[in-house]
Design goal:
Shape: globular
Number of domains: 1
Distance between the termini: 30 Å
Helix content: 25-40%
Organism: Lolium multiflorum
Protein name: Alpha/beta hydrolase fold-3 domain-containing protein
Radius of gyration: 19 Å
GO molecular function, one term: hydrolase activity
Number of strands: 12
InterPro entries: AB_hydrolase_3, AB_hydrolase_fold, Carboxylest/Gibb_receptor
Order of helices and strands: EEEEEEEHEHHEHEHHEHEHH
């Protein structure tokens, strides 16, 4: 899949289900009859515990909460388990997709999490959370919290045998970066059975009612997230209950200061409309009680939102992955 996404909507106004109610192409379209059409998605990939046939990484799917359906795919690299008794860092990974599309089980995120496990040597838990509009925010936040609590319980054999609870990381890209942040906030506020070693946010989905420099319309008119599209996304995924002044997408400084995780990495892309929100969050962290060494800002020149997912062999993608590997290890 190309990193360039066409942001103009096809000129159709109806399909067999009726008139369009909400058009957020290329992500999602909702019709007045209730039908939802998702565009930004990749094919389902089955799990496989055969590491030898899966590029050295075994995977399996688990159900975390039968009542809500929240589940996860676990990734365990064979090289990471080669040393008997060695405990591995755990990365609780939360996929992106504007809170309303994509999946932990799709090709895009299966491949990324597999690569993350292979490169870091960590046990990766990729969370399958409920999506808007069928399940508006805060369902995704609740599901991520349930997943973290499940990881902390060490009830799964892979977690019991290999996980090091003292080296737990929350990570995510785009909307997943936002969800990972709020999961860390909740762990700081409500407590968790394990401490959070680090928070990794790649091109995190934050916004606001007042424009920052990167949130203006680009001269070339081509962007993964045009500002006018982002303005409409958050009200949609919250079922109209919140606007772009919502602190959940524009965190107040006192909330940032409350985080108790030890370290943070924020990655931004030069052409991303959300770039300056990520920079601002990193700056807020440095203004708090954190030292400069505890906050890592990674900037990718010439790239747009989510480029690393669709072009993993690009030099900038490899550099970003290496920054995450170094942060985890």
């Amino acid at each position: 899949m190309s990193a360039t996404v066409i942001v103009s909507s096809p000129a159709k106004e109806k399909d067999a289900t009726g008139d369009i109610a909400v058009d957020l192409y290329p992500f999602i379209r909702e019709y007045k009859g209730g039908h939802v059409e998702r565009f930004l998605r990749s094919p389902f990939v089955p799990a496989s515990e055969d590491a030898a046939g899966n590029r050295g990484v075994a995977t399996k799917d688990v159900v975390i909460d039968k009542s809500t359906g929240v589940s996860a795919r676990l990734f365990l690299a064979s090289r990471a388990t080669a040393t008997a008794g060695e405990r591995l860092p755990v990365i609780v990974y939360i996929h992106g997709g504007s809170f309303c599309t994509e999946s932990a089980f799709c090709r895009t995120y299966n491949n990324y999490a597999k690569s993350l496990a292979a490169r870091t040597g960590a046990l990766v838990v990729s969370v399958e959370y409920r999506l808007a509009p069928e399940h508006p925010i805060p369902a995704a936040y609740d599901d991520a919290w349930a997943a973290l609590q499940w990881v902390a319980s060490l009830s799964d054999p892979w977690l019991a045998d290999y996980a090091d609870p003292e080296r737990t990381f929350l990570a995510g890209d785009s909307a997943g970066g936002n969800i990972a942040y709020h999961t860390a906030v909740r762990a700081s506020r409500d407590g968790c059975l394990m401490d959070i070693e680090g928070l990794v946010m790649v091109h995190p989905y934050f916004w606001g009612s007042e424009r920052l420099a990167s949130e203006t319309v680009r001269e070339d008119g081509v962007a993964m997230f045009p500002p006018d599209l982002v303005d409409r996304l958050w009200p949609f995924v919250t079922a109209g209950h919140a606007g772009n002044d919502d602190p959940r997408i524009n965190p107040p400084a006192e909330e940032v200061a409350s985080l108790t995780c030890r370290r943070m990495l924020v990655a931004v892309a030069e052409k991303d409309s959300m770039r300056d929100r990520g920079r601002q969050l990193a700056a807020h962290m440095r203004d708090c009680a954190w030292s400069g060494d505890d906050v890592t800002l990674v900037e990718s020149e010439g790239e747009d939102h989510g480029f690393h997912l669709y072009n993993p062999l690009r030099a900038t993608s490899k550099k970003l992955m290496e920054s995450i590997v170094q942060f985890v290890n």
